[in-house]
Amino acid sequence: MSVHSALNTLRPEASEAPESGIVEVFNYGRDREGLIPLWVGEGDLSTPAFISEAAQAGLAAGETFYTHQRGIPELRQALAGYHERLYGRPFDAERFFVTSGGMPAIQIALRMVAGHGDEVVVPTPAWPNFAAAAEVGAAKVVEVPLTYGNAGWTLDLDRYFDAVTPRTKALFLNSPCNPTGWTATREELQAILDFARAKGLWIVSDEVYTRFFYEGERSPSFYDIAEPDDRILYVNTMSKNWAMTGWRVGWLSAPPAFGQVIENLIQYSSSGTPKFLQRGAVAALDQGDAFIDFQRKRAEEAREIVCSGLEKTGRVRLVRPAGAFYAFFAVDGEPDTRKLALKLVDEANVGLAPGDAFGAGGAGFMRLCYLRNPDQLREATRRLADWLAK
């Protein structure tokens, strides 16, 4: 049997899984000398030493064996303590489950609530991995584009709710949003929760960027309004707040009653997250508040550098994001953002992500990650401005 024939025997959910539009540009330009890479969602700072040293101590102590499927007790308690500080009320450590990154937390959440023939409603533009994970699991994603106008990006809740059908099992929400920076208000979250309760729907809430919010210490959250047993699965990661993207440590928060189900799904995917890496996560949660504050202030400065620099060109449409750390902008006369991203690699030596990689709602836009050195961002903005001037 030829390889081509063998490919035809694979499940379509696997063989038709889309290539990431972000990775395509990344692979195209990754080896360009002097290129400024602003295409992926991570900062340029290495993990702080106090986190790495805690992991190294665990490794030196021989913590290289199988461990608790749900996460070591110390990390689950640290997660509870972190949430207590952030939301000002007690949290049960039993509702936190450690995963090998934020992506596995999303996959487990989806396996719990949606499968073949089911639908999940997703506002777009949105990080493409969520839709891909749902579709690999044979669920269907129903996109509801955000509206872009003078006030920035907004979600039409009537349109969001009207997308629900008898096949809908869950509403997905990422707030603050990657890539737009749109951030739901407390009132919008309450309306979504009320609707989900009335319809018996699950909510999968991706709150990865909740600390990268420019109007307070954190963004509004379902934690502010929900009851502990509401049908909400919260997914999060150590990656962004603590500069730990390569560590692959995340968590899922859910009512403790679902603990055995989640433990089983962890067992059948990763069999648990390495214990010595979890030691680093404990240190991050217990000692990392000052680092998060530093990151947020750095991001706020970077937002101003990039947005003001692009606005001065007179050729882009953008609104300063309320949260996350991306500038999501449209370039006049450049509707094909995939071609534009490749062209900017070749002609401006700057790497950006094409907006159509984030669903139908992102068509015509580009994403720039600005959680980086201010001097590097000034140079990248200058290069983009020079290219636009041509």
Automatic annotation (TrEMBL):
Transmembrane segments: none annotated. The keyword Transferase applies. Keywords: Aminotransferase, Pyridoxal phosphate, Transferase. The keyword Transferase applies. InterPro entries: Aminotransferase_I/II_large, AspAT/PAT-like, PyrdxlP-dep_Trfase, PyrdxlP-dep_Trfase_major. Gene3D superfamilies: Type I PLP-dependent aspartate aminotransferase-like (Major domain). Residues 44-384 form the Aminotransferase class I/classII large domain. It catalyses: L-aspartate + 2-oxoglutarate = oxaloacetate + L-glutamate. Its EC number is 2.6.1.1. One of its GO terms (molecular function) is transaminase activity. It comes from the Bacteria. Its cofactor is pyridoxal 5'-phosphate. NCBIfam families: PRK06108.1. Belongs to the class-I pyridoxal-phosphate-dependent aminotransferase family. This is aspartate transaminase. It comes from Kaistia terrae. The lineage of its organism: Bacteria, Pseudomonadati, Pseudomonadota, Alphaproteobacteria, Hyphomicrobiales.
